[in-house]
Amino acid sequence: MQNSDSSKLIIIGGGEDKKTDKEILKEVVRLSGGNDSRISVVTTATNFPLEVGDEYKRLFYDLGVDKVDTINIVDRREANRRQLAKGIEDKDCIFFVGGDQLRISSILGGTNFHNSLIKQMERGAIIAGTSAGASMMSEIMVVEGEEEDAPRKSTINMASGMGLLKGTIIDQHFNQRGRIGRLLGAVAQNPYVLGIGIDEDTALVVNQQNELRVIGSGVVTIVDGREIDYTNISEQYPDEPLAITNVKVHILPEGYGFSIINRSALIKEEK
After folding, report:
1. Considering only Cβ atoms within 10 Å of each terminal Cβ, which end of the chain, N or C, has fewer?
2. Is 131 an active-site residue?
């Protein structure tokens, strides 16, 4: 593995710049080992695997990557093929495209491919994903929920994610689609986990110490419900608006970060 530092995950909120500076995709390449890196693009989440796979192959080739291939796993039988799981053992980066995060978790979760993915991360490979490929990395995953609405228990459906970043719920396209309400609702139901909302053209780089570093043009919203005093989330009428008190929210632009272990923001050093 050629990971140039201790990073293990790159979690992209979707809509990353593909035409001008390509800051986030350049960082994927840099952390994966630069021009000599070997990248596999996993297209399981999308209904258009050929088109989306070819787009990311072209993008990575344009950024100087020497070897890029695509993997489209369509069912659990295929995901359990040992030969396919072994096929990512020499990769420096496994990149998951957007689409439907439930396709990723339901097709890949608990399979030989999933196990190989975790082993590769532990060995030093980068696991990167955009949009649905970001949401699937968390321990608990928002599958769907009402946007731009007051948070309500009944509007959120959740499922187990792939568990690459323990103790988190990750949502994407965050401020662009008004998803603060549904993330608050998700955290109210699971106050022991950390809610993470990532804007478009924005990403979190996660290191081995579970420290998060923000890159890109938007912000990352962290919702910490560990010290919630009161919520009505478990009461009888699920369609009523959510009451929640003493929830902590952090807004972090590029250069700032967050420690999951310490539950504290990492402040950008001024030059």
Report:
1. C
2. yes
Within-domain flag for 244: yes
Q: What is the pLDDT of residues 209-248, one digit of tens each?
A: 999 999 999 999 999 999 999 998 887 676 778 889 999 9
Question: What is the CATH number for 89?
Answer: 3.40.50.880
Catalytic residue among 27, 139, 200, 211: 200
Token output for 50: 């050929």
The answer to whether 250 is a known catalytic residue is no
110 located within any domain: yes
Q: Is residue 2 part of a domain?
A: no
* Domain of 11, in residue numbers: 7-261
Enter the tokens of residue 167.
């103790």
Q: In this predicted model, what pLDDT tens digit does every residue of 151-185 receive, in sequence order? A: 665 567 888 999 999 999 999 999 998 889 889 98
Catalytic residue among 40, 131, 135, 138: 131
Count the domains in the chain: 1
Work out the average pLDDT over 34-61.
Answer: 97
